């Protein structure tokens, strides 16, 4: 806006009244918004509403043309035990992953906040999962969780926690654990960065004052660090939920939504309806409900992002 | 009440050494000020006493106990930080009671201590506010309040007033001094403001680059600086320095030549200096008079005149060397003119080239008379 106003000021006669200056400013502002708005309409809004409207049609591989059926798709979705089940699966995955990521991200950030030799190297290494392509991470974890040769089973067996290897990817709970673990592993760097940035924004003298007051680590975390990080928790919590609700690639690569439907979250369900059953009407009905699930979190996130203070 | 003793204390951060073997003994109940330019190690030294910084070599004793490896909370100290370091999510009351809560005191005991401290610091009306709802001066008081509820043996302050405006600074300075009189505890106070040092201290420790330059009462440092650094650091405006050359010297007298060719005779022990040796000649601005009348007269080219009402600062040149004179408020001085200023011979300090002050028996005697 600064550049825009300077440009227009340059063109104006010095005798021009203030009002006309402002009006021309505003016109210029709208003018430069046009390309962005056009792009948004073509690339985002149109496909979105087009897909939404598809949810009112029956359109499968057997239909030559979409047939308008009103809310039938929604009724079908909301009464289909499989689809309802995938809502529960999604909830378990989202809540489990978000909580685990936040806990481990915070713990790791607290570690990386300490002053120790090689801290810089460790901080950099921490970012590794972030830059790896997620399908690569999925395969790495699939290998580590392998029921025969996986390092995780070897370690658990070695430590005596289990008597026989866990078949992570072929058991319901094991598969859910596997996708949660893998997704958490990938998300930790981002979360740790958020928490670390929050920690570094803290006046370290507060911690020193608390040490002199005799407070131990636990009390310092509880009474000083957690209250300080509260805004970070809100933002990362919302971001984490949004990201995990949208999660597709890792689950698809790791379990394909299985075994059977054990890890079949909404994104997988939409994918199946759209590209395996070719029922586009059902797929968009799920998509629409999914968007409404996301919406409150997104609104909450955006509000906390733009809120002053 | 407790004394604090430092024995050959050394601090290294990695390979760089910042404190170079400090020996210091602070008497019980004294108000001691660490003063020195930025980066000289004042905070580091204080933080080592607090236990927030590890001591690389040497030992620290508080109240007779070696605390070199003791946790901060077990040393019997309390500290006021430059940023105040109040706990932002706690009320004033919670800020002050936190330390007692940690040690598991009973609620009635805590309440009593907190209200006691609040009334001393006039914070009674603010106990339920959060730090961000307080003014700078009030925050400062809370930071002090947080230390006094714990009844420590030794109070530590790290530039506590540097975030306040000039007026509040003077006010808080007086309040802290009063508090010291009231409590009678040992207090160690870090500042780079020599006015704070002069006005508050029982004893001043002047530090430079991790070394103690001089320890003494404010007036002792003012009248008998051990070296050129202390002479320049204590007193405001800064002492004037001129390079001079020894013309003649005896055990009771040194005759030196000023840069303008003028010879002046001074009462110093000149047995250590020889003819032709270079020395530094120092006079404080406030010891100048306008016109003749002092023992030594100098003609200055007046460059800038600042009239503050009560006093006038004159910035002039003597043979190209800057000179500042602080004279009477009504003195008639005009910019661009050449004027005569004078001062008494016993106001002059002489320093060897390495900075050490030349000794003068008589000046020492005068100073001890004026010290209360
Ligand atoms: N954590 C640290 N790591 C490395 N060097 C440090 C550290 N803390 C202080 N120093 C160095 O030690 C020296 C003394 O620092 P210190 O903070 O004690 O100075 P100071 O006298 O308090 O200065 P100021 O008046 O600016 O507060 C400085 O050169 C500083 O760079
Ligand atoms: Mg400091």
UniProtKB/TrEMBL annotation, chain A:
Keyword Cell membrane: yes
Signal peptide: none
InterPro entries, alphabetized: MetI-like (IPR000515), MetI-like_sf (IPR035906)
UniProt KW keywords: Cell membrane, Membrane, Transmembrane, Transmembrane helix, Transport
Alphabetical list of CDD domains matching this protein: TM_PBP2
Membrane topology: Multi-pass membrane protein
Keyword Membrane tagged: yes
Ranges in coiled-coil conformation: none
Gene Ontology CC annotations of this record: plasma membrane
Location(s) in or outside the cell: Cell membrane
Pfam name, any one: BPD_transp_1
Annotated ABC transmembrane type-1 domain residues: 87-301
Any one biological process term the GO annotation gives: transmembrane transport
Family per record: Belongs to the binding-protein-dependent transport system permease family.
Protein name as annotated: Sugar ABC transporter permease
Organism (species): Alginatibacterium sediminis
TrEMBL record, chain B:
Gene3D superfamilies: 2.40.50.100, Nucleic acid-binding proteins, P-loop containing nucleotide triphosphate hydrolases
Domain ABC transporter: 4-234
Cited InterPro entries: AAA+_ATPase, ABC_transporter-like_ATP-bd, ABC_transporter-like_CS, ABC_transpr_MalK-like, ABC_transpr_MalK/UgpC-like, Mo/tungstate-bd_C_term_dom, NA-bd_OB-fold, OB_MalK-like
Record's keyword terms, sorted: ATP-binding, Cell inner membrane, Cell membrane, Membrane, Nucleotide-binding, Sugar transport, Transport
SUPFAM superfamilies: MOP-like (SSF50331), P-loop containing nucleoside triphosphate hydrolases (SSF52540)
CDD domains: ABC_MalK_N (cd03301)
Domain of life: Bacteria
GO cellular component, one term: maltose transport complex
GO terms, molecular function: ABC-type maltose transporter activity; ATP binding; ATP hydrolysis activity
Keyword match Cell inner membrane: yes
First and last residue of the signal peptide: none
Coiled-coil features, chain-numbered ranges: none
Record-linked SMART domains: AAA
Stored PANTHER family: MALTODEXTRIN IMPORT ATP-BINDING PROTEIN MSMX, MALTOSE_MALTODEXTRIN IMPORT ATP-BINDING PROTEIN MALK
Entry protein name: sn-glycerol-3-phosphate ABC transporter ATP-binding protein UgpC
Gene: ugpC
